[in-house]
Amino acid sequence: MTQEELSKYIERDRLEYIGRQRQLFEKAKPMLLENYLNEYVAFENGQVLDHDLDEQQLAERVYAKYGYRDLLMKQITLEERVYYVGGFRAVQN
Predict the structure, then answer these.
(1) How far is it, in rounded angstroms, from Cα 56 to Cα 68?
(2) What letters, b where the CB count within 10 A reaches 16 and e where it falls short, cover 53-68?
(3) Which of 5, 58, 77, 93 is buried deepest, with most CB atoms within 10 A?
(4) Are 53 and 38 in contact (CB under 8 A)?
């Protein structure tokens, strides 16, 4: 396997992982809203790994415990955040 093929495989694997985590996050959203409203959560495989009101403190703790890797970290809010960048609308779910 060439370096380019390996890079494509790893990228595809990461995208699949992130997509799976987002699906599990959406499924768990009612519970997350009930228990963690306005907090940041580190979420993986349907479980909250840790949570905090401060995103930076959460990230430092989670990466210290689990290592620096792909994890879903997100603030739990009632409404989606909408950003306008260069005239384009971007929604953060």
Answers:
(1) 14
(2) eeeeebbebbeeeeee
(3) 58
(4) yes
Instruction: Match 């960048």 to its residue by tokens.
Output: 85
C-alpha distances (whole Å) from 59 to each of 3, 69, 74 are 30, 11, 10
List the domain range (segments joined by +) for residue 16: 3-92
Q: Report pTM.
A: 0.76
Confirm if 26 and 72 have CB atoms less than 8 A apart. Answer: no
**pLDDT, tens digit, for every residue of 11-59?**
888 889 989 999 999 999 999 999 999 999 999 999 999 999 999 999 9
Q: From residue 15, give the alpha-carbon distance in Å to each of 28, 39, 40.
A: 20, 25, 22
